[in-house]
Amino acid sequence: MASKSKSLDRYVAKRDFSLTPEPKAGGRSNGSAPQFVIQKHWASRLHYDFRLELDGTMKSWAVPKGPSFDPHDKRMAVHVEDHPISYNQFEGEIPEKQYGAGKVIIWDKGTWSPVGDAEDGYRKGNLKFTLNGHKMRGNWVLVRMKSRQTRQDAWLLIKEKDEFVRPASEFSVTDELPDSVAELAMPAKAESTPNVPPIASKVTARRSSAGTASMPAGATKRAAPATLSPVLATLADQPPPQPSQWIFEVKFDGYRILARIEAKQVRLVTRNGHDWTAKLSHLAKALQSMALQPGWLDGEIVVLNENGGTSFQQLQQAFDSERTQDIVFFLFDVPYYAGHDLTGVPLVERRLVLQSLLQGAPPSIRFSDAFDAPPEALVASACKLGLEGIIGKRRDSLYSARRTPDWIKLK
């Protein structure tokens, strides 16, 4: 194969790095666990850029329709120039008049392993591999088309038959899971025994209309209870020993609030069961405007200060002065929704459901983001910003109405 520097010549020649935020070079190989990334790219036409780390660069294909878990869907994949390994962390806006101008998000990421010799398969145009991502799992193949009628180097991306196959009539991964995974840590390596399907394969085929969401396979049919006690975090004096198995969120300086959606009514209650709907009528109205299905949402109300942090003093003053319009509701969990009990579903899957519900939410209703960084660094940053600390949650934690070591507070 061509040397790494030579293979990036086309990539560099197409871009003005004084104007585009894309990386010019760099990135570190993941060694025995090479990386893959799929970037959703709103260029002149929406497409998905599929990249595999191989021979020191990211081998790249533009897939107009995106991947499909149905082996009958042979998706066109146009082979494009190699990209630097650092590109697998790029999200942003490529400016107008630059090559590929438009928005780019990291739609999926993870590691991949070849089936057979990767370089030989790539060279011969029949590259078989296994993906271990947040959305993409299982066995796939890229096959070069033999037609000479097109000037493009056209390949086909095809799902191979395995336990992750889903008929296109039942499931579309690009429609069901449209959002970025940039904030998520790299997915843990799959166990050797299958039957641990990816987030994508755990989602049913119901496509969302206003206020609806697809349910993970672990959800059970059950109406939301009339009352709910929230999960409580345990104070910890140091980060967990295996931080990759956790997600970390900002520890808000506010009041814990649970939202009960029932028919067209919304009630906002404290962790001790006190009804604060009248005090927070603007938040109740904002949630009502979203046409949500019956259930419970869990979060915290705060007032944001000028530095982007939260101020408990300003929150109290907002109640005292009746300036409650300044109060924002950050949501981080969904234990019940649309006739389903999600308390037995792993946290990361509950958060995907919640995130889908909050698409286009009013400004006062926000999703509590997780941060993909070492917890020590996050605690240090929280101190500099004047925040209380961070909350750590095991990625596979269930929603249990008690204080649990699966949720921790780091101050």
Explain what you see.
There is one protein chain. This protein is an alpha+beta fold and 411 residues long. Helix content is 14%, strand content 32%. It is built from eight helices and 20 strands. The protein has helices spanning 4-7, 9-13, 118-124, 173-176, 281-288, 312-320, 347-357, 375-384; strands at 35-42, 46-54, 57-63, 75-83, 92-94, 102-114, 126-133, 137-144, 154-159, 220-221, 232-236, 246-250, 255-262, 265-270, 295-302, 328-337, 340-341, 365-367, 390-394, 403-410. Strand 2 and strand 3 form a beta hairpin. The protein is globular, with a radius of gyration of 23 Å.
Number of helices: 8
Give the SSE order as H and E letters: HHEEEEEEHEEEHEEEEEHEHEEHEHEE
How much strand? 25-35%
How much helical structure, as a percent, in the residues?
Answer: 10-25%
What is the 3D form?
globular
Distance between the termini: 51 Å
Biggest beta sheet summary: 8 strands, antiparallel, barrel
Structural class by SSE content: alpha+beta
Q: How many strand segments? A: 20
Strand order of the largest sheet: 1-2-3-4-9-8-7-6
What oligomeric state do these chains adopt?
Answer: single chain
Mean model confidence by pLDDT: 86
